Amino acid sequence: MHGLMAVALAAILWAAPARAEVSEIRFAQQFSMGYLQFNVMAHQKLLEKHAAALGVPNLTVSWRTFNGPDNMNDALLAKAVDVVSGGVPGLVTLWAKTVGTAQEVRGITAMGSSPILLNTRDPKVHSIKDLGPTNKIAMPAVKVAIQAIILEMAAAKEWGDANYDKLDQLTMSLSPPDTTAGLLSGGGSFDSGFTIPPFQNQQLKNPAVHTILDSSELLGDATTTLCWTSKSFHDANPKVYQALILALKEASDIVMKDPKLAVTYYVEDVKSKMTVDEVVAVMSDPRFKYEVTPRKAKFYADFMYRVGKTKKAPATWKDMFFPEIHDLGGS
Predict the structure, then answer these.
(1) Which of 106, 123, 154, 288 is spaced 20 to 30 A from 40 at the CA atom?
(2) Full-prediction pTM beyond 0.85?
(3) Under 8 Å between Cβ of 42 and 266
(4) Could you tell me if residue 284 is inside a domain?
């Protein structure tokens, strides 16, 4: 009897259909030049195309806009979104908190690298060494945004790891558009701004504004933006995840080969006050790259662990990313 029951149970399990993958994938995005692949993916429906080819037809792709990493990470952990995009420290922070737990999060791919500039209108300030108690730096999110971590890296380089947070007391949270408006008008409660392209470039059109810190001089060729998801989503949706990787790779190629097309999508989506040609001119800087290979992700993670911002460091960059991109020459 037991043998017959076992055979019957095995037959039922064999006949049972595989658990269906999601019919909708929900993205959290920030509107900046660091995520042009998402603009291309949305306009050309690249993810839907690749999903259909892999046997997941009629995939719905939805987008939610956030400003800053904290709210996005909260939404990911609450399963309100599936894919989050942001600066590298946002992933490092969440990976270190969740690795080895049921809520584990890892990176999907890199998205881009670009110079991030700390600009000021204070004529007496020529470098971070000149910043004092009367200065105030606006950035997307104090302590956690990539700008905050880059400022701490610069402080650690200047005054040692023990003083990495020496300038934190000068920072305040403000969106890049509002920071730019305040710097250009001179009427804000701050005199410096650490934002993102193309806002930082708009600021420099005012001759009273100048740059005192350039991230590329500190980091070299390093990824600045990437995307990540939960291990549970990755494991439960192998076809949709594979389609996502293919879509990100295709979108990255499109951005690099036809930047004007990608920027046209971006300008339309964000309702930018800059023209397509103005944004394309910003992208002509060779330091702008759109690629899926992570660069110096471990560099960020090692710094954040060394100064005590995280409690775990990766042995290699691959620890923080899912296996699908482990064959790339990342770092």
Answers:
(1) 106
(2) yes
(3) no
(4) yes
Instruction: Tell me the residue ranges of DSSP E strands in 101-185.
Output: 105-113, 117-120, 137-139, 171-173
Instruction: Check the CA dihedral 281-285-289-295 and report its sign.
Output: negative
Domain enclosing residue 162, as ranges: 117-219
Neighbouring CB atoms inside 10 A of 65's CB total 12
- The answer to the question of residue 150 being in a domain is yes
* Residue in the block written with tokens 């949305």: 42
Neighbours of 283 (CB within 10 A): 22
What is the rounded distance in angstroms from the CA atom of residue 325 to the CA atom of residue 331? 12
* pLDDT single digits (tens) 57-91: 999 999 998 766 778 889 999 999 999 999 999 99
215 and 70 assigned to the same domain: no
Burial of 231 from C-beta contacts in 10 A (0-12 / 13-18 / 19+): middle
- 270-309 per-position pLDDT tens digit: 888 889 999 999 999 999 999 999 999 999 999 999 999 9
Q: Are residues 214 and 122 in the same domain?
A: yes
236 plus 306 within the same structural domain: yes
- The alpha helices in 163-275, defined as continuous H runs, are 176-185, 199-203, 215-219, 231-236, 238-257, 259-270
Distance CA 85, CA 273 (A): 23
Q: Among candidates 119, 91, 163, 123, which has minimal Cα distance to 319?
A: 91
CA-based angle 215:329:81, to the nearest 5? 70
